[in-house]
Structures
1.
Amino acid sequence: MIRPLKYRRMRSIEETCSALMVLGPSARVLAGGTDLIVSLRGAEPKEDVILLDIGTIPGLGEIREEERALVIGSLASFAQIALSPLVRQLASPLAGAAARMGNPQVRNRATIGGNICNASPCADSVPALIALDARLHFVSTEGEHLLPVEETIDGPYSTTVPHDALLTDIVIPKLPAGALTSYVRLARRQAAAKARMAVAVVLVPDEKGNLVDVRIGCGSVTPRPHRMRKAEGRLLGSVPTDERLAASATDVAAEMIQETGIRWSTEYKEPAVKALTRRALREALGWD
Amino acid sequence: MKDFKVVGKKVRRVDALGKVTGQARYAADLADPHMLYGAVLRASLSHARVVSIDVSQAVSFPGVEAVLTAADVPGRNRFGTMIPNQRVLADDKVRFRGDGLAVVAARSAREAARALSGIRVQLEPLSAVFSPEEAMKRGAPGIHGKSNIFVHHKVRKGRIADGFRRADVILRRTYTTALIEHAYLEPEAVMARPDGEGGVLVEGCVQNMYTTRRGLSTVLRLPLAKIRVVQTTVGGSFGGKDEVMTVLAARAAMLALRTGRPVQMVNSREESFHESYKRHPYVMEYRIGAKKNGRLTALEVRMVANAGAYATTTPFVVWRSVVQCAGPYVVPHVKADAYGVYTNTVYTGAMRGFGSPQGNFGIELLMDELAGELGMDPLDLRILNGIRTGSRTATGQKLDQPVAFIETLERSARSINWKRRREELDGQPRNARRRKGIGMAASYRGCALGAEGTDAAGAVVSVQTDGSVIVWSGIAEVGQGYYTVIAQITAEVLGVNLADVTVLPYDTAIMSDSGPSVASRSTMLGGTATRRAAGRVRRKMLAEARLILRTKAKSMDLERGWVVSSGGQRRMRIRDLAAACFERGVALFEFGWYKGPDIHWDEQRGRGSPYFTYVYGTNMAEVEVDQETGEVRVLQFVSAHDVGRVVNPQGVLGQIYGGVAMGLGYGLLEEVEEREGRLVTENFDEYLIPTSLDMPQMKAVMVENPDRHGPYGAKSVGEPTTEIAAPAVVNAICHATGQRVRDLPANLERVLLGKKLVRT
């Protein structure tokens, strides 16, 4: 049974921010609702919940190309992102992640903004956004901010976003010419399954084949999603070889264990994340 | 044999339209302007003495019309078939966390849920036991009585010591299976209405109406005739809507009789997970002996089933496991023991397969391991030892009906090109990242209830004055396609179109007690009863037709809506004949009853002829295993089954496809996780069943092997299709990786590491 709720339909970003400010923590932003509505089932609430539906704010779901970036409105659905020729062209790992998230019904409803702000460790868009060095555009009563994803999600289901801020756009800088990308995902079944782990990769080689930029983002690997800098450093400035890829993958596994400690699942996740990372790197290089 | 007009033809399910258009009415769709909503307060401990339950505050909550506890049960608060120890509401003790303590009826669902917080319960914790191994130990906390071992069935054949003495190779292995959920789409729902005369009408997604009615009669202290159970459309059951529905129906009926108003109770998915029974997890220890040439000499088996908190059908489930423990193979010496054990976990009971998926998993993995040990192809080992017409089973029964087992093996092998494919795949590099494998599993299965109880069922066929036909059956449609089968049989016998036949819902007020809709018995028992009822009507119609047409011709027939003479000449429309019968005072309303042949089981000696006939099947699977992550893709699957006679090919295909899907879920994904009696898996976000994208290319092979007992020779198909998919796919995984997986499910961790990782 869904708890009794109050519901308000928002007409603008400004109205939403001020409502968030005035109502405090009892106000929750409703976009696609695929996480929020589920969380509202069950026991009676401790306090009233007021849903602020931003679904009808005009323009929030647009995907557009700017001179130096791809800009995705926070209300863009996963289906929209998966099918967008712009996203496929300019942010291929994100299109891949979007296409494999949930099932068609969920992809039709779920929004990228909701996926980021819910901050689940297995959020499908996040590893891709990390690898793409995406910036998040927030509007609050005090103004506007542009924050990297890494500085926004600070732990499982936890963000640094001020309560009155609304995520409006995801800004993905255009990749340099010749950039190579990939996204690999492991799940327990082929559809409607949370990602057990995911790895997104962006590699930029120079004309000699030396990698001048390496970015690795992982899902369900570290409590706070971030680029795997040590693993990236292993590849930076040199021509990739299979040995180097393997070493980089080992670094990712080591970084995971360093941050999470040895958990019940480590025995599985350590070899699996190594394999996935190596695979993602090989795939980006077109070796597989 | 004459050509069939409707039987054996592809037909659309008679209940398809309502389901696909959303018009079918499920119990949760029922409404009444005066109805109340029921809610249940469930236990917060796994094992505890109930000290007190105080409802005095809850009754004054807004909207509340009644709050009842075990003290309000009008009759005996114990129901069940063999060992009636299940409670409608906990009285002396709480035995698992799904136990209900009190029920509320209120004017809205929300008010009912709120009132639960006003019930004060005092429980005194008792030490609890969660694993059967612990529960079997001397001094373990007793859950019902002193000992938690409440079932022991055995099979004995030959002299086990002799068998092992003759063996060149002896293997010992242990296999385990998981606790799994039926995962029907529709959670349990029921509406109970007082009939104003002290009786009650219950409508709901009940699988076994007569069983539920018996339970209600005990609990409500009402004669059976005062309780009417009518089935609503069932959104899946798979054996799962028996005892849990009796509990729900009894609670709703108690509230309805107390308040004098209709009461609806609908479980949420989480409630369904917590309260509904599951498939028994088994621990199975085997010792098998064989000659160097592969001939089996001896088999020793010990199975332990975790029954959870109540007995329910465990005695029968465990019995089927032990009877079929040797699989479809001739073994001269067999010693098998199977136990059912209480624990303080969710109770387990009937689920599609009913004790066979566990045993088949064990014996079929064992056969593959034995083949490996002997250096034999697993197919050759099975062909060598496979049962044939005239073979004796593990229980000593001589199979005097035609046995089509080898045919299912050979046709599957041909379909997947077993020998060549296996050789090709053996040639793959051992350490390839992705490696393919091919595996198989086989079974034989006793049709219908066997020695569990009297196997008989009834049906009524009634031809209306316009020639349209109504059929009532004592066996339920639970999704298996049974109503379509009996409509086809009726149309075949009466020479009418399928569209002229309507099967009306199952209603205990109309039909004699036909036993439960289980054990893949619907078509054999109910189908034969229907054929008999229709046959009686047909004979009456033909007799009248002869009088009307003034002919003595014996060879008249009913065909395509007409009375036809032996030359095929159309003499009279069936609808005119039906009208004429009415005018002549002849009722075209007949009852058919069919009791299955006698069987024999000697429980003391552990031998006998437990079933009157059997079906045989083989499954083969090809998989691709990611050796770095443990991911498994099932690439192709062949499912061959002796079904006796195909009545509706679409129905058989549906059973095979669905059975394979369920079996693959069992093999690869499904497990209800519990921690100290607390369910961790309580919805479909964590409990994963296969999606359409997980399903392989499937090839269904229908082997027709008509049986003298079934209608037109038809036997069973519902359960056999799901009981060997898991061992086939696990054997394929093992072929791919060269590592044995001996426990279910073969998920990512098990396939990669060979073991389960336990969440802490």
Note: The CA atoms of residues 133 and 175 of chain A lie 10 Å apart.
2.
Amino acid sequence: MSHKEIDEISGVATTGHEWDGIKELDNPMPRWWLWTFYATIFWALVYTVAYPAWPLVSAATSGMLGWSSRADLRTQMASAEAARGDYVAAVGKASVEEILADDALRQFATSAGAAAFKVNCVQCHGSAAAGSPGYPNLNDDEWLWGGTPEEIHTTIAHGIRFGGDDDTRLSEMPAFGGILSREEIDGVVAHVVALSSGGDVTGPGAEIFANNCAACHGGAGKGNAEFGAPDLTDAIWLYGSGPAAIAAQVRQPRHGVMPAWQARLGETTVKELAVYVHSLGGGR
Amino acid sequence: MSGTVEFERHDAQAVNSARLRQPLYTARRKIFPKRASGSFRNFKWLVMAVTLGIYYLTPWIRWDRGPYAPDQAVLVDIANRRFYFFFIEIWPQEFFLVAGLLVMAGLGLFLITSTVGRAWCGYTCPQTVWVDLFLVVERAVEGDRNARIKLDQGPWTARKLALRISKHAIWVLIAVATGGAWIFYFADAPTLLGDFVTGQAAPVAYITVAVLTATTYAFGGLMREQVCTYMCPWPRIQAAMLDEHSLTVTYNDWRGEPRTRHAKRAAAQGVETGDCVDCNACVVVCPMGIDIRDGQQLECITCALCIDACDSVMDKLGRERGLISYATLADYNANMALATEDGAHEIRPSLLRDASGRMSQAVSHFHLRKLFRPRTFIYFGGWSLIGLLLIYGLMTRDRLELNVLHDRNPQYVVLSDGSIRNGYTVKLLNKIPEQRTVTVSLGELPGAAMSVIGLDHEEGSSVTVSLEPDRARSLKVYVRQPRELKPSDSRAQRLVFHVEDVSSHDAADYVTSFETPE
């Protein structure tokens, strides 16, 4: 447009656009706004030269600074590793008992163990390690295979009834469904319920228990951590309490399997897990 | 009046006058304020000295708090999340005290504005104080108004270059000192100064100083009145606090108009004239570049320098001071009505003078009684109420605190003997900079016994713990209730954690719950 129309009232040029008598004024942009705008354009150009930006056929331009997000992540991971390197080394050298005795090491190992637990263990034991039928609750004070720091460590390191580890914890309760008669099983179940609830333990089941069960569970039914034989006198039942659940376990026992973790996670992480599990409140 | 009265008449136009108002898009027109002298100017010097003194010196005041706390009187310790103010130490959860202080500052600003107008803008606002300081430098280097205008309009000579470089160099120095002083509030000042000059301070310190140096230099040296007019929201908000009894800097045109530069000729011709001799003294001293005789305007920060300028001219003329004065709108309107006989004719100042030429008794003047209005009572009431609440809160706050988080997962654990166990994270807050020994004990839950992870102790209903000075300590606590004491009906029982200092008996309680299975 060669012709410039000046608005009479404001004395400012118009864009030539008009709607129902309302004209659009052509005020200039504020200068601070323009300079900010130019600065952002300049910044964008500098940025695309300095950093990876322009997409090409197989990759993007790499930028003159040579920065990459993967390298950045590697650096950050390395510095995080380095920052906790001293603790990791100390945990690696110390025994589980020594870690528990050292306050700083114990706190570090508990946090690290909690993290490892959330990745590897919660699938069976639950997010709070509270277990579920068939999967032990790790918060309580009953331990099938022993609750001292070393025993917990061994269980985690080598697993239970795990085929891939020669040192794995191994035991098997016979299926008494084919050994004892129905009446005998009912009798021994009544005896076990009485053991746990403090009832009469002189019933007909007492003799059957002494002959068939006491070898592993002990004469008083207190269990034996050597064979992973549960304490039958306490309030905790892995496969459910009550005569029906107990009878089912006597007839056709279920046996839980836990993998060995030493080979998979390494010695340090297993120690951290042992410290964490021990700290859940039931450790001996 | 006989003889010639000596006073300077300036050929000046207000840069920001309504008649000459520029479009927003044009470049700033420079203002060259002339040095004023008088009681308001002296008061402003005093305010400047006090406020700058507080700002620059406060971080260097020492305050002994013993070996476990910093000895800086005022310190915002962000890294350790502590705020120290002389004898007061604030933890992050007590920050409401600072928030209350900010509310008080807001209400105080309302109170001041409703009584004496924009006193904050005119005297104590950092923008005003630093612009004043920058102007002192400008005058010292380049001279007063006329010399500066001449220099600005003159060609670039070696002298002009030297003066400009010196001025900007001093401004930058002040700006660096301003930005520099700020960071000392956030770390031990002597240590930080040493680290700062040797290049060992944290990057955030250098960035903060750089940003504040840039803003101080730009706002105080380059932008000046534009910050107040275009950037600051306060001039727009303040109208809500002002009423017709608020004091503002006012040109009393009821005695000044019609203004004339030729009073004698007018008198000889029998034309009535006002007190204003149109000397423009009020215009040349104005740092905002306005003409106060145009009436109340947004740009006016009520610094009162025009009052000083006008009073000195009135003194020379032998007339009463106060042609420009602090006046309320109510008084102004009353006097205006007298001078124009309720708008019946143009201003006739003689109507306000008695036969001997003195100011008439009918002229309204400000009276202190006008400070006491419902509005000021409400502002003052709110201000002092919050102040009293803050003092009460400060005096009664706990220095030993206890927070308990009940484990939600698992909510409870059944142990082998059938007893029920709940887990808790107990946080003990020792808010004094001294080592303490406290006992944590259980209450209300029948048969409750606790054990603390990582603490060598017998399971029981209480445990003794030592707390580091000025630190929080977190304990993992397991509470056990025997099976036989579990009530049959309720699932959640009350459990109280009690912490008590063994020597001072400072104590705190926390009520939580104990979950049991059905």
Note: Residues 216 and 229 of chain A are 6 Å apart (CA to CA).
3.
Amino acid sequence: MAGPVLELRNLNKEIPRPGGDPFIIFKNINLTVRDGEFVSIVGPSGCGKTTLLRVINGLMPHSGGQILIDGKSAEEVNQELLMGFVFQGASLLPWRTSLKNVLLGVEGRGQNAKDTEQRARKHLELVGLSGFENYYPHQLSGGMQQRVNLARALAVNPRILLMDEPFAALDAQTRNFMQLELLRIWRETRKTVIFVTHMIAEAILLSDRVVVFTHRPGTVRSEFQVPLPRPRTMDIKSDPRFLDLENVVWKQIEEEVNAAGGFAKL
Amino acid sequence: MFKKEIVRGAISISVGVVIWEILTRLLLENELLIPPPSSVLRTFWTLAASGKLNKHFEATLIEFAYGFSTACTLGIIIGYFMGMYKWFDEIMDPWIATLYSIPVIAIVPLIIIWFGIGMLSKIIVVFKITVVAIILNTAAGIKNLDPVWLELAQSLRLTGWQTTYKIRFPGALPYIITGMRLGVGRALLAVVVAELMASNAGLGYLLRDSSETWDSPKLFVTVILLAVIGLVSFNLIKRLEQRMAPWRQSAEWSSEA
Amino acid sequence: MEALTRNLNSTILRVGSVLAGLVFWHFLATTVINDTTFLVSPIVVVATGYEMLFVNGELYPHLFASSWIFFYGFLLAIVAGVPLGFLMALSQIVRDYVNPWMTTLYTTPRIAFAPVLLLWFGVGGGAKVSIVFLGCVFPILINSYYGMRVVNREYVELARSFRLNSRALFFKILLPASVPFVLAGVRLAIGRGLTGVAIAEWFGATEGLGYLIFFAGQTLNIPTLFVGVAVFAALGIFGFEVVRRVEAYATPWKTDARGS
């Protein structure tokens, strides 16, 4: 794989308002993501990072610019299942068991039913949930639900994994465990990941690169390579390089928030 | 500028009426089966001008008003005590469950035997139909109060009476109104049923009278009038519910009516 | 132990309440009123019920006649109501054109239609079935419509993110998400359908539970009247319980099956 997996060129998104200027959510986004790279996007609330993920996945149209996936325009490959999306909330279907939820993206695509089921089971095992195949979502804890969510996105063998604040709703302890689990799963699968979060420490811990967004209309303010070796553990959070980077990113976000009118407006 | 759905709704209704008029004029020789809208309108006018319609309408309205207001008063009181005291709830529950599971139409003959064919029996019917929903909803509202509110009342050293009218009653109000709304639709049905079975006045009486004398235009006038009353009262209560309990999102209209 | 005492207390209160009520009723009937064309003792009602069920079997023809009408009207309401409700949820145009008619029909006290339907169909089965149908169809239709309308937007986005086609979207997301609402509608329809049976049979019938009750009312046969009312109530409870079981079976992911 010589070229980048994903390339955004001058990407814009605006929503027309009746009788007024359009509402600009983000503009002029330029971003290149290498194969197997883990990129996090952080920024103040309402900077359009979640919308960007939806636009990349084709859930919403963009208003200008280009999205290239493996060098081909996203419109061209829109019908192909190239991306897995991990939603923020537990978007598990309550009437399907864990296994059936993981099957949602892979079943009925012309492959042997036994093989697809085998694949779903394998991915449940990957996220540490073997034995829970026949549980309904309401029987699982929040952390387990997000594991199923992750398994479902991975099971389609996506080129890119899009994650929209997947651990935001979890309690702090569970979140820490899930971050470690994600590090392990990423090591095993080597997927290209775009991870949206508002937690700076989470972004640094997980990523190869952290992209900071400006306040609305959002655009890329700066990018940082994370200078920390892998495999990482929680201990890395006390590494001076980690703390330095966290500080720099925090300063930038603080500036953005102030520029947008201060914390009280959030 | 009207909204698209209103325009479409108006088109749908007017086209329906026009088709009805044309079909009845072209296809049917007599007006017995389906009278054309024009003759329904004419009959409506005659009935209204003679004061007959007014008289029947008033009778139904009075029966409804008495029955409903009694049901509200007693229902809220009984429901309040059922919500407050477990033992009272236990004593009342089997009777209310029984009352609830009897279709009103089945009990109407009995009520007529006991209370005669006059207004009293209709008032009782309206009462029976509306009171259960109000009792159950009031009790549920009192029971489901957020315990934090009661702790708040305690921390502010409110007296029992203050707690009731400052915390419990407003807290339960959305439930109570829902109970009233559930009652109203069914009460209209019930009062018409009772009038239909035995009475000398009211819209139900008009319905039976026109049906027995094969007076189709009059029958249709009554049916359409009942439709309009149902529609208006339904929307009125929906508005009332939104106004009196705006902190609670309006319950969807799929509930039993 | 404490919980046990509380349960016991609850049972005692309930049974006591019912017994006290029955005793009061008995004495009211036998000593205060003492007029069998007005009120009879619960003992007489039970005896009459026993006789009609097990001795002369008088109840069965009425029960069958009513069940038949109920069954057809109810089935028709499901067959027509569910697809139309779904169609209204999926198509704005269908919704806008059908809505005014539906709201009007729904809010009209449905007994008003009974004489009209009798006028059209005569006193045969057609009129009765259509009265039951009119009673049942709206809760089913409205709940089907509502259930499909309020499907979580996230589920729909999820389907799109997995590039499901519209067929899969319908069968894997929209349909299962609507099932609890449809069943809640079916549950509401039972009570309304039974009322419809009674209305239909009152207007023109020679058999059926509704006929039994009204005939008993006209002839001041209080024991039979009470038996008829009790059978109606029992049917309502039975139907409710059947649907509750179906709900528990069809929607195992719902810990508490509650409708609207």
Note: Residues 36-62+69-82+160-266 of chain A form a domain with the Rossmann fold fold (CATH 3.40.50.300).
4.
Amino acid sequence: MENTTIRQELLDKYSSKLAGSSAWAAISEEQAKKYKNRNIKIYNPANTFNKIEISDYMISDIATNYSLYASIIAAFTNQQLTTFKFHYKSRYDLGTIEMSRYMLMQGLEHMLSDPKYQDLSPQLNFVYEQILNISSLDTLADHYKGTVEYTIDGQEYEFSPRTFFNLLKLSDADFSFFIENYDQTSMGMPIEHFLYSFSKFTNDQKIYNKAYLNEEQLSRFQQICDYQIADFQSVNYLTENLNFYLDETHLNPELQAEILDEMPQGYSDLQKAQYIYLKLCQTLTYDTEFYAVNQCGPRAAKHKKIENIPNITPTNNNAVCYEFAAIYGKLLTIATPSITQEMVFKNGYFGSGTYGEDHTYIDFRCGKYMVSADSVMGIFTSDMTNQKLGRPSNGLKCSNLSKETIKEFNQSLIQVKKDLQQQTQEKLAGNLPTTFEDAVFLYRQETEENQVYIDIPTRLGFCFDQIKDSQLTGIDAYSYLLQLRKIVFDKKEQHENVAMQIIREGTDNTESQISLAAIVTLSHNYRDPEEECSYLVYKPETGPEDISKEDLMAGFNSGFYSYVSQKDEAVPCIEAPVCSHFILNKALE
Amino acid sequence: MIENLKLKNQKLIDKYSLSGNIALLKKQMLIKTILSEENCFNKIQMADSINILIDLGYTQEEAIKEYKKLITFKN
């Protein structure tokens, strides 16, 4: 039995709060404690409506207490009531525990399927059947007489609520057929308008609380309202232009041409909006001075006047958030007149609505896309900077909830970025050489000032290391050395600073094998007899070894070193005699 | 190895062309032409090669090491 004493006490004490409401029952504090122990937890991740936590003690009370059961049935028979309340005396105020029709039914279903509550099964089943009987969609539909009228994107429509109930009642297969074969002409409206009306009606009327929807119906309701069937979120959003500064914004013709003239043909409105944003970010730069003076004082004043906008050009390109927003908004209306937009002013939660006072950006609607274009999310992380540094943009965002729509928006943005890249590359490529030699020549010119210099001994060491690592021997190694000389030292260095000769080592009259050695000469200018030269003897098997001029000359004089051919270039500053093997070979000819 | 450099070069071309940094883009496009030549590092001066590697994002020390791997006359 309901505690009538508590009820009277509550009515006396909280008469204003409880006046006019009959859909409640009074419970003791002890009961409240047990009701709050929501030990039945039902969670279906695929269905966010289906998150239920309810006390089995509460449901048992309802199933065994006729008076309480009758109050609940009476409340839920009235289709306008979506919840039943349990009130109790709490320490400081009126305590309340709410229970929706859906919570109760889910809890009952749970208990009926759990053997733990088998003894209570007949009572639970009775309550379940009774509530189900008064909670069907048909029963609820009977409460709605006449029609409802909605204005959708400026058009007026009239609906019979039955239409929406019928949509919920369709089987999955029929619903899929209806959606796949939706005929705009016979229905008299786009599917987005129809689903928007369904969503508005069912949410405004809280149909999901007034009737007990089965899993299929609930899942359908969620699919539609989560924009999974069609994205109608932008319906009735920005149905007209709310950028009141459009008429006052006058663009510099040079800037307008820079942004719009090269926009690729055949772009959709969304692509145009994305292209203009990226190109504008690429062209404009956040004004350093405006930031440096903390956005106030006489130096900041010019940016706060909309009259400054015509002064902004591709070369005089300093701008701040207000100007970017005004220019972007104006360019949008020129290139894509069907886009509706709003200039948003924000300072914390509130904005003054006045140009030049608060942070400013553009929100716009482009078909189903709801987009926010804020080029200055942060001074150092603004898209005007991000774009120039090749960082991802963070200010052009799709605000739709539908993952599919966001994905489409981002894919389009990626494509537009690629187009913009391609455009810039093509523009430049027309003026660049295509041959290897010309490219090298031009690259050297471009790099002249920042050319890295590595000293000659280091580079020579690099040559020797390279041969060692290659494991080449004999002629192959010497050949590699001569080739390395050509790329490691430039022509002037080869001509003046580093000479290399491959000479013969060993004499005909010794028993040891005759082989080769490379003599490397290093000098400031080995062609100048006044300049000093230093020498290295290099053999792949032993590596480089210093040798003095005197020892080298002695080697030549003794015949230990000699030139292989008379035509060989001489080792700089070494006067070598004509060797015996030339004479011998001449004699043998 | 050269393919890795070509990828780095393409990324920089994309980056600079998206941002409209014409001077850096021009240099990378010249590097692209140079890299498209077979055994290109055997055909240009070491200083140019090192500079190309630095322009592709290597430090000077790394560039020298990388250059060592790139030049070969074995082909």
Note: Residues 4-135 of chain A form one domain.
